[in-house]
Structures are given as C-alpha cells and as structure tokens.
Amino acid sequence: MEKYVHILKGKGLKITPQRLTILKYLDENRTHPDADIIYNDLKSMNPSLSRTTVYNTLDAMRNIKIIQELTISKTETRYDYHTDPHHHFLCMKCGSIIDVDIKCPHQDSKEVDGHRIEEIHGYFKGICKICSNE
C-alpha cells in the first residue's frame, strides 16, 4: 500500500482506506473496469464502501490525473490506471478493452495545427484474438 500512499500524497489527495483500495484495485485489474464493476468487486471486502464513494473517488483521481477515464462506447465510462498516452482496442464481441502500444504521431505534441492538445484518445474496434479463435 505504500506505493499508493506515495501516489496520493504526491498529488495532494487525502489518504483514505477507500481511495487506497480503489487505486490498488485499478493497478491490479488492468481490465478497464467501470465504476459498477469496481464497486461490486470491492463491496464484499469493504462492507462500508458505497457506490457514491466509488464514483467520487474515481472522479477525484481522474481530475488530478492519477487515472484516466475512457469513453469508447457511448453507454459506459471505464477507468484505466495506465495514464501514459496509449491507445485501446475494444472487442465488439466480448466487450474487453485492451491496451495497444501504437505510437500516435502527435503523442508528444503540445499542439496540432495551432490547437492546444489537452488529451489524446485513440481506439480501435473489432474482434479480439481470443474471440477470433473461438
């Protein structure tokens, strides 16, 4: 947990058991879960955890760039512990979101065509290799 205490302290976020638990969960579950998955997976081990706490914690960590928010499909928001610029692949069969290590030509740019870049999101949609082999 020391790693997560250091991350939260370094960003000036108050250390709470819930924040530590959620951050650790995201680090150990690189499946890009949504808030409901996080809540359901952690609730049994943390009976006092509320859905509101999960949403508020994710929002606070996203705002200070400890995690990133993904909105690849129009109906759900997923969360990613890996905040370095990278792309994602969405399997249209099983719904998995997989990190893809492909360089964007503007990945390290601060602007493009005179526009200031705040965030870069790239994603691909198709059928993952696991579903393709079934």
Task: Give short descriptive properties of this protein.
single chain; 134 residues; 35% helix; 17% strand
Protein model, in words:
With 134 residues, the protein is of the alpha+beta class. Helix content is 35%, strand content 17%. It is built from five helices and seven strands. The protein has a three-stranded mixed sheet, with no helix packed on it. Strands 1-2 form a two-stranded antiparallel ribbon. Helix 3 crosses helix 4. The longest helix has 13 residues. It is globular, with a radius of gyration of 16 Å. The termini are far apart. The mean pLDDT is 91.
Q: What is the number of E strands?
A: 7
Number of helices: 5
Helix content: 25-40%
Oligomer: single chain
Instruction: Name the strands of the widest sheet in spatial order.
Output: 4-3-7
Give the DSSP E fraction (strand runs of 2 or more residues).
15-25%
Ends apart, CA distance between termini: 39 Å
**Using only CA atoms, what is the Rg?**
16 Å
